[in-house]
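dumping these here so i dont lose them again. two proteins, back to back, each one seq then structure tokens. dont judge the mess
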Amino acid sequence: MTASERSKGRSDAGHERARLASDNLRNADRELREHPGVADALRVNANDLRAGYQTALLTNPELKFGHYVAATRLEQNLGTRFPNVTRQAILERLATGDSIGQALQDLGLGSDEAKAAKKQAERDIKAAKNK
């Protein structure tokens, strides 16, 4: 009897989650190498950004690096006006299947405000990638 059979497939699911997290972390490393300006734009060093993302992957191995970066930027852009908008709060909602826009609305922004905030974060990140 294999481990998979004994665990009724749970070990397969765990291996898949670990593989997915590993793939996402590898993609984040590539993104940081190709676009070092992203970490600078977020006012963190690349190692701290990578470490934070790696920690977030423990909770949500499906989390894409771009979503982590966007959540970080949104907190920076909105946190003073909307104290509920934190990276952690956005990431928690993403883990439940919400979009970033829906997460922002859940955290107190109106629909138009959420759209505008998301677009601004996208512009900020795109500008950082082009540096």
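---- next one ----
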Amino acid sequence: MRQAIICGGGIAGLGAAIGLARNGWSVDVYERSPTIREIGAGIFVKGNALRVLESFGVIDAIRGDCVALAEARTLDREGRLLQRRLLRDTTSIWNVKRELLIRALCDRATSLGARVHTDSPVDAIEARGAIRVRGEIHQAELVIAADGVSSLARRALALDEPVRPPSSGAIRLLVSRTAPEKDDMVREFWSGRLRVGVCPCTPTEAFCYFIAPLDDQRGMQTPIDRDYWSARFPKLAAEGLFARAYAAGGVHHPYPFVRAVSWVKGRVALLGDAAHALPPTLGQGAGLSLMNGLLLSDYVSARSDVPEALTAWQGAWRWVADRTQTWSRRYDWITSEWPRSAYPLRNAVIWAIGKSSRVNSYMRIADRVDAPGHTLLPSAYFLAPLRDESPA
């Protein structure tokens, strides 16, 4: 039986464990934390990730306690519409509690025979396929480093590529779902350099995110500064959102951005945030991780030469993540770095992006990936007319 080691028990690592185990590999997952858990609130699971989860046999485990979104709206501080996207078929988005998704992935991986070792920090890794955990060497035919933004593997194997530090960050939390969140839609409000997203996550909870530049001390404060946010988003203040968010607390994280010279070296592959962490503006953190994990597992399972298979996998699919990173950063720039003097023009730009199905098909290329089928869905799936609202 072919053997694989996975460093990291998050979404990327557990997804890869499922992909490999169902292809007959013996899989060991090493997680540094004492338990498999996900700190956070909600997470957007888009069409490419949903196809992977269905292929993995995980979709039913999350279906009953999440929200399948019907549309996405971008609005100004007063609630006036800037952009509207209808969500259906290939453009589906589910909003899922992170802990539910992690639990479902872990349960499926272990049911297929993967062994998950918690409290097992990896403190060394070599391109020949060896790792060291608490002084003990473990070796396998394949090592997958799904060890996050600060990846030990990426640094140890000299795969880091210098990038510009993040300029924005987000506070994420869950609040009770009330009348303003009754509809199954994500609403994102823009005001100057700030953004607030509100989206039902379960029948009783809503996922919220508060985005501000890192040089905005009041915008980064947790619990949130209710007066500060209320003054900038009067529509949401009237809905009582900021009182609920203040009580919930939340955690602030800067937007990560990771680029690697290569995703592969010898028998080691980088996966998930270790390879391509990106701002969440396109909602593809989980999607890229899951689809690349499935594709990687299929490539190495179909070839006897692991380094050759990893090189072929990267050559065929890395471009999707690269383009998604580029566009996620561009979209974040519109919020956090757009010149103040040109804010009125920004509303028209947001509307134009939303109006162009062809632009959306290009920038949201990851949504079109059918990883189980190793193909891209035709762009025609994404060219249905959008609602023709004019910018405020």
